[in-house]
Design goal:
11% strand, globular
Length: 641
């Protein structure tokens, strides 16, 4: 057995004893009033050293100040060139051609240029590497803008059709959103492709569902815009990022609503049959003495409601507190858990602990639960019913925050209901789910084995394994009726560490599954994953966009025209507010409606952390240095004592 690792297994009726060596190590951090060690949330996974670097918050704060300064220069250059000594006709916002002389111009391109310059300036790498990054960003964007403006000229010159300037700017904005993740994935040090076979192909019924709901949503939007022309005209005046009009936003929400209804119905059908084979609960734990008892007691309560036997394996991983000892004493007191094991390891890393745990499990189904998570009493029973379908590889649920943890937990509840109680369910309507939160998820062991187990040395091992299983043809299910409750960060340091890991994982996971992108016509590879990358880029740009809007409003309002007050409201609130309100009503969480304004502000804090996560990526000098071979140890034979 590996040196420094001790394992102890007892049936639930055994006499609980304190295992030698389970006490906190000498010099361990002092516990706070809640029983937590200082910086308990930090681990080797906070910033995997091969593919990320821990950077102080001052870096992104300085980057935002520099962004504001660069914005002023970029916006002022065309005006100075035209009115100053040079008298050079530099086109405003770098628009080379526009036949539309009516619509005012939104300076979208200046924003993208300023953002790209700032990011390249503060990226983690040498001066040469950062200069190359800036050249790539700006070169790709210049080419995209030239193609857009060239298309507008050709349309005007040969087809006598005028492209509205807002349409050109919208295309430029979308190009910027696409260039950002493309350049990161091509130049940062990221995991190489996992080598998992991509067997998933495009299915006619999946695309039919998406296209049909899109057509219905578009038709309804056209009818609304036609019947309520005056109201639609007003809404068009508050359009965001290029002014595509309210129909785009209305159609998007109507489409998502239809898909959510279909996804909910599909879940109801999927769980209609009882299914309760033996399961093993795998709990990775690092410095969770303050929470591990509640976690295990919740598992025992869920075992009481489940017809099959439930075993538990706790993988204590390099804790400096009493996590292992408390896990043992709590498990010995449980009534309905069939048997349990507590394994203590001095090898750091959650994925390493999970893989070691898998080698100890023989059951056909593995229930992964984080040690700061308490599952609902029916979570295992409900989730397991979906596995009656032999093609289901994994099932997740609804990660609600613990009640009574302050305003941030209420904000998190809104975020969860939107993401996992609505959008994720809509993805399930057409088989578009590729990531299930690892706080609580049940895997089919055969699917785990086929995918090679949990990848080590990167963030997002939970999304990575589900995406790998999806590529192999397994179906993922997200059922909000399987509820579980997670810890909400109660300090900004905890929140920043959590969100940096989460947002950075998008690039780690995508790079590790490169062959899934645009492959075999798969709806995940061709639609959902590219959409997720665009959405990640949009989120990283939200806080800079707010700063940019203030600069344009205050300093350049006479050049571009002051935006109306309703435009400002739309940028800050817009359709996200309407959608969030609708979802809360559907979930009957009227208590959260008063917290909605705080949630809208939280979206910008989330954007701030997203930007910081991208700045924690490493940009090496050579192509060879970019490749990181992320270990997948379960592709090799299991360890043996």
């Amino acid at each position: 057995m590996d040196e420094g690792i001790r394992t102890q297994t007892r049936p639930k009726t055994a006499d609980p004893k304190v295992r030698p060596g389970a006490k906190p190590a000498p010099g361990a951090a002092r516990l706070d009033s809640t029983g937590r060690s200082a910086d308990f949330f930090r681990s080797v996974d906070s910033a995997p050293k091969a593919v990320s670097v821990a950077r102080p918050r001052a870096v992104q704060d300085t980057a935002l100040f520099a962004f504001a300064f660069i914005c002023v220069i970029v916006l002022a250059l065309p005006e100075l060139a035209q009115t100053g000594v040079l008298n050079v006709p530099v086109p405003r916002d770098f628009v080379l051609f526009s036949a539309d002389r009516v619509n005012s111009m939104l300076p979208v391109r200046s924003f993208i240029v300023s953002f790209f310059l700032t990011y390249a300036l503060f990226a983690y790498g040498s001066v040469l590497t950062r200069s190359k990054l800036a050249f790539l960003f700006l070169g790709k964007f210049a080419l995209a803008c030239a193609i857009i403006d060239g298309g507008a000229w050709l349309s005007w010159r040969f087809a006598d059709a005028v492209w509205p300037i807002h349409f050109q700017q919208f295309l430029a904005g979308m190009a910027g959103l696409a260039i950002f993740p493309h350049t990161i994935l091509s130049n940062a040090r990221l995991p190489v492709d996992s080598g998992v076979a991509n067997l998933r192909t495009g299915k006619v019924h999946e695309y039919t569902i998406v296209l049909t709901t899109a057509a219905i949503a578009g038709l309804i939007s056209i009818i609304v815009a036609t019947v309520y022309g005056d109201e639609a005209g007003y809404l068009r005046s508050i359009a965001i990022l290029g002014g595509m009009g309210p129909g785009v936003f209305l159609a998007q929400q109507l489409m998502t609503g239809q898909l959510a209804a279909l996804g909910w119905a599909r879940n109801v059908i999927s769980r209609r049959r009882a299914f309760s084979p033996p399961v093993t609960v795998l709990v990775p734990a690092h410095n969770e003495a303050h929470q591990i008892r509640d976690t295990l007691r919740a598992v025992d309560a869920a075992a009481a409601r489940y017809d099959g036997p439930v075993r538990v394996v706790v993988m204590e991983n390099c804790s400096s507190d009493a996590t292992a000892r408390l896990a043992e004493t709590t498990l010995a007191e449980c009534t309905y858990i069939a048997s349990w094991t507590v394994d203590a390891s001095q090898i750091p890393g959650k994925a390493k602990a999970l893989n070691r745990g898998l080698d100890m499990i023989e059951d056909e189904f593995v229930v992964r639960i984080d040690a700061d998570t308490t599952i609902g009493p029916d979570a295992i029973r409900i989730a397991m019913r979906h596995f009656a379908n032999a093609r289901v590889g994994a099932v997740g649920g609804l990660p609600l925050p613990h009640e009574g943890e302050g305003l941030l937990s209420k904000v998190r509840a809104i975020e969860v209901l939107l993401r996992h109680g609505f959008v994720q369910v809509s993805f399930g309507a057409f088989g578009g789910i590729f990531g299930l939160p690892g706080m609580f998820v049940i895997y089919r062991s055969a699917a785990l084995t086929e995918a090679g187990g949990f990848t080590e040395g990167m963030n997002g091992e939970d999304t990575d394994i589900t995406l790998a299983m999806t590529s192999l043809g397994w179906r993922m299910v997200s059922d909000p009726r399987a509820k579980f409750y997670t810890e909400t960060p109660d300090t900004l340091a905890f929140l920043r560490e959590q969100r940096t890991r989460w947002f950075r994982s998008l690039y780690h996971v995508t790079a590790h599954n490169r062959r899934a992108l645009f492959a075999n016509g798969s709806i995940i590879g061709c639609v959902v994953l590219p959409f997720t990358l665009l959405n990640g880029a949009r989120r990283a740009m939200m806080t800079p966009l707010l700063i940019y809007g203030v600069i344009v409003f205050v300093l350049f309002g006479g050049v571009y025209g002051h935006p109306h007050f309703v435009t400002v409201v739309a940028v800050v609130l817009g359709m996200p507010f309407v959608l969030a309100l609708t979802v809360l009503i559907l979930w009957r969480r009227f208590d959260l409606i008063l917290v909605l304004p705080l949630y809208m502000g939280f979206r910008f804090l989330r954007s701030y952390y997203t930007l910081g996560s991208t700045l924690s990526l490493i940009y090496p000098k050579t192509r060879e240095e970019r490749a990181f071979q992320a270990p997948k140890p379960r592709q090799a034979p299991p360890f043996a004592e």
